[in-house]
Amino acid sequence: MTEELFREDATLAECEARVIAHGEGGVILDRTVFYPLGGGQAGDTGTLRDAEGREVAVIDTRKSKEHPGGVLHLMAPDVVAPLVGTSVTARIDTARREAHRRFHTTTHLLCALIPHPVDGCSITAGYARLDFHMSEPLDKDALNAGIARLVAEAHPVSHRWISEEELDANPGLVRSMSVQPPRGLGRVRVLEIEGVDLQPCGGTHVANTREVGNVVVTKIEKKSAMTRRVVLGFAP
After folding, report:
1. By CB neighbour count within 10 A (0-12 exposed, 13-18 middle, 19+ buried), where does 212 fall?
2. Mean pLDDT across the chain, nearest whole number?
3. Which H/E stretch holds residue 106?
């Protein structure tokens, strides 16, 4: 199993690690700062550097299918991966991570502004989107005013862990219809924006809403009779 350092500290840019397995187009480390694709959020990219200074690019990060609990650091097909047992410095693309953190936090602000279930989500370095299960129209200017207000109010953002029993006792915490919290580990990670939003989430976020900065709603689409899509981007 890979120790997922990003779950406790999303600001970590690098860590020392050891290659423990090969397969599926990449390597698995014993610990990592790389976030694997999941919960609608894209995987991290970056590099692995060994003690001799040899560096290989990580082009994506996924959860391993062959090694349950392992985080797979994917590489280009022509790359020679570091050998099992090799010690490496794992470093993420910090600009990409920063974009993910800002966008992911803003999706939580949208959940506070739009009181409807979410039935689709995508968070990338270039944009983010949320699909809301609703039929009413949405006003882009009103949403942007709401986001700007919550950003300016500088709400602290933090996480904690609750038991699966606590989650079962509070089913209203789950806003997503399409992505459910992982089960079987005995605990669930909960993201809280103080006074604004509280829901299960394993992604990476900023520490205070003021760090979101100039994220705005760029588009609202009617995808079906019961789906409204809200697209986020960085303001010019």
Report:
1. buried
2. 94
3. helix 94-113
- Asked if 109 contacts 150 with a C-beta cutoff of 8 angstroms, the reply is yes
Fold (topology level) of 96-234? Threonyl-tRNA Synthetase; Chain A, domain 2 (3.30.980)
Between CA 4 and CA 97 the distance in angstroms is: 15
Distance, in Å, from the CA atom of 204 to the CA atom of 131, rounded to the nearest integer, reads 20
H or E segment to which residue 56 belongs: strand 55-58
231 to each of 2, 179, 221, how far by Cα in Å? 33, 18, 8
pTM for the predicted model, two decimal places: 0.94
pLDDT digits (tens, 9 = 90+) for 34-59: 999 998 999 999 999 999 999 999 99
Percent of the chain as helix, strand, coil, to the nearest 5: 20, 40, 40
Q: What's at 67, amino acid-wise?
A: H
Domain spans of the chain, in order of start:
3-92, 96-234
The class that CATH gives domain 3-92 is: mainly beta
- Summarize pLDDT for 26-35 with one digit per residue, the tens: 999 999 999 9
Residue 52 CA: distances (Å) to CA of 46, 78, 82: 18, 20, 11
**Contact of 232 with 217, CB cutoff 8 Å:** yes
